[in-house]
Input
Amino acid sequence: MRMVDIIEKKRDGGVLTEAEIAFVISGYVKGTIPDYQVSAWLMAVYFQGMTDEEAAFLTKSMLHSGDVIDLSKIQGIKVDKHSTGGVGDKTTLILGPLVAACGAKLAKLSGRGLGHTGGTLDKLESIPGCRIDLSEAQFLRQVNEIGIAVAGQTAEIVPADKLLYALRDVTGSVPSIPLIASSIMSKKLASGADVICLDVKIGEGAFMKTIEDARRLSKLMVTIGASFGKKVVAFLTDMDQPLGLAVGNRLEVREAIETLSGHGPEDLETLCLEIGAAMIREAGLATADDEARSLVKEHLRNGKALAKFQEFIQAQGGKIDDLSRFVQAKEIVDFRSDVDGYVQRINALDIGLASMRLGGGRETKEDVIDPNVGIVLARKVGDSVRKGQILARIYADQPVTEEIFLSLQAAFVIVSDPVEKPAIIREIIR
Ligand code: URA
Output
């Protein structure tokens, strides 16, 4: 087989065989096919697309490029979730304990944040003492004992994705639906769960800018998952504003605890309850959607999910003595509206960038995160505001620069006519 023939076939709209796709991926990982040929192939895929079957073959080749986690030592149905990346997305911290309290097993490998989006590992590490470097034995034991563990990846999972993603990033071929679907699904399948819930964000701050693209991506990921015998449910959710109110590591942990205590922002609580119910239903812990919804709601209201969160954090060495003193920013500065009106949009990208510039996120992989800083919204889309009222609160450890105010100014769009509150879940694809 020759790489140039495979490039030409895809360039001309041909359908690649399993063997041809496996040849590309294994050759690239081994270093026998150079970057320039894989770049040309990626661009051909970007323009010509892939059939569902080709995307499944690509996923399979990527999945087997590295280690596959064996969760067979965990009793019960293993569930997992993945978000395509958002601002203020602390759902794992809420959903994990919630579904574990209902009897599901969540064995989750999470990532760090980069750029305007946050990562679960950074949020966990903002809790004093909390460790994410669990050994495999410890990880499996913890899931068996308490139903939940969240750790950083130790095994070499899907090395093909690391190589391909870096190349896509510098060749303009990231926004290709089959490439995104195989990238996400290869990593999820390598993590070994039986049930996978996907949260596909739509909006300015997200990979998918339109509902049509989000739908195409979701359908493809559900189809790929099914071809591997997994139950996959995709939630298409709004990222035209940050999720919940808090953005920044400790601020988000605090909001997660408030949500588990029944005092969370409405959009965040709704999303966690709905994804939680889908996980419980697909895991066979409830036989109907309504029963699943009642079960997760009950575990949120009766304090069992909060107790599970505490057990989980304690198992990983973390401790929060006093929630009211958990966030220790040196300065809290209000950002106020200079007009009367209604909030039409809160650009999640601008809010995420503002939090990153305060030190709450990483511009490069090497940056060190300040756990205390971030932004807490005081208004969401659809809320009314009067001139002089607070739109957001800035938590900073340094004097707040003009750049941060400009980001917030750009983020909030205030109009004079009333605005309807958007639904957090726009569609569900099973
Ligand atoms: N997230 C991934 O993991 N891969 C992509 O290609 C895009 C988003």
Summary: The pocket of uracil is lined by residues 84, 165, 179-180, 183-184, 207 (CB under 6 Å). DSSP finds 16 helices and 13 strands in the chain.
